[in-house]
Amino acid sequence: MKKIFATILALAMLLSFASCAAEEKATATTPEAGTIEETAGEPASDKTVGQTLLDAFKASEKTTAQEIADELMQNSVIQFMGGTMPVEEGLLTGFENTEIKGFKEGVMFAPMIGVIPFVGYVFDLAEGTDVEEFKKTLSDSANLRWNICVTADEKIVENKDNIVFFLMCPETFEQNETPDMGGMALGDEDQLPAADGEMDQTPAADGEVA
């Protein structure tokens, strides 16, 4: 079942990329958005999506990459239907042609709709992996415009001991920016069931994660 849901997620993203290819050719290239570290000026009074999820990561008492990713997907700041998916070392979404290696457990959390500029990972590093070097590899190879349709605003790389949190996302989810499926808004009835805990498909939670 895990492979089936992984295939669904991959196909959804692929179809979204294909639908945007023609538009990309006709649209002038826009400057790449800055990251949290690169953004100048005073911070906004309200926390961004990335800052909110980073705080949730730091506050989490979960111990595995899968548990942390599942918990992050339940955060009330998430305004889309998405899921989590285990990943293996190699080429990962968002990192150009750089192979990401050095982790014993990795979990991606992302929208089911590929046109949303959001992709996150939680990595549990293998013994002997240099944490700072691993984070640098993620930051240097990450592309805020990995999604040809849209560009992420934030790039965040942080860790708690050997657990590394990575995220590229918009600063906020405006109601009119959330894509729909075939012109119909996504509701609770549209979500896919979880596959025995292997891939959790969840809409945004009504409240904060405890």
SSE topology:
Blueprint: H1 2-26, H2 49-59, H3 65-73, E1 82-87, E2 90-91, E3 99-100, E4 103-111, E5 119-125, H4 131-141, E6 154-160, E7 163-169, E8 201-202
Antiparallel strand pairs: 1-4, 1-8, 2-3, 4-5, 5-7, 6-7
Radius of gyration: 16 Å
Structural class, by secondary structure, is alpha+beta
* Arrangement of strands in the largest sheet: 6-7-5-4-1-8
Structural domain tally: 1
| Sequence of secondary-structure elements | HHHEEEEEHEEE
Helix content: 25-40%
Distance between the amino and carboxyl termini: 29 Å
Shape: globular
Oligomer: single chain
Quickly count the helices.
Answer: 4
| Strand residue percentage | 15-25%
Summarize the main sheet: 6 strands, antiparallel
Low-confidence stretches: 14-19, 21-45, 176-210
**Rounded average pLDDT:** 75
Count of distinct strands: 8
What does this structure look like?
The protein has 210 residues and is α+β, with helices and mostly antiparallel strands. It has one domain (2-173, 195-201). It has 4 helices and 8 strands, in the order αααβββββαβββ. It has helices at residues 2-26, 49-59, 65-73, 131-141, and strands at residues 82-87, 90-91, 99-100, 103-111, 119-125, 154-160, 163-169, 201-202. The protein has a 6-stranded antiparallel beta sheet, with helices on both faces. A two-stranded antiparallel sheet has the order 2-3. Strand 4 (103-111) and strand 5 (119-125) form a beta hairpin. It is globular. 33% of the residues are buried. Mean pLDDT is 75; it is low at 14-19, 21-45 and 176-210.
